[in-house]
Amino acid sequence: MKKIVLASGNAGKLREFAQILAEFNFEVTPQSQFNVPDVEETGLSFVENALIKARNAAQHTGLPAMSDDSGIEVDALKGAPGIYSARFAGVGASDEQNNQLLLEKLTGIPTAKRTARYHCVIVYMRHANDPMPMIFQGSWEGIILEQPRGENGFGYDPYFYVPTHKCSSAELASEVKNQLSHRGIALRALQAALSTKT
Description:
Helix 1 (11-22) packs across helix 5 and helix 4 (174-180) crosses helix 5. The chain has five helices and seven strands, in the order βαβαβαββββαα. By secondary structure, the chain is an alpha/beta fold. A hairpin with an 8-residue loop joins strand 4 (115-125) and strand 5 (134-144). Helix content is 30%, strand content 24%. It is globular, with a radius of gyration of 17 Å. The model has no long low-confidence stretch (mean pLDDT 93).
């Protein structure tokens, strides 16, 4: 199996990446196994932040690295929380705290105007000085619920209603979510690109 370092300590992301890429003979290893220090996400877009994280992981490990920067964009909040999704309620905030702040900011906004989408950008770098990193993007449309539904997933999933399946993201089986999600779309694009190079 080909080893790729994932520039993330998020257990939910690691699980999704490993599940999707295992069938294509890629072994995803978290950067924590190499004691890679976290790097500050100073970018102003998902693409910039993903590049910063992938380059940092490749520099410290000498291995190909992959990073994802993702988040949720809510139309009624002019695109917030966006790149700040994981730290919407402050650095170190829990999923619950982030979700509560999101609900507070959407108080009084009718369902029809609670449209949102998940975005995911994945960057793959062959090495730290890769002059042409591969960049893949996926988006997933939905609506923000007023009450949580489901036990699966992480982040904003219990509040992210998927109109095509008439349930929340957290109510979907992981195989179904991997087919539909922003991350699944971006990962399949990554896999397709990598498979042509091997």
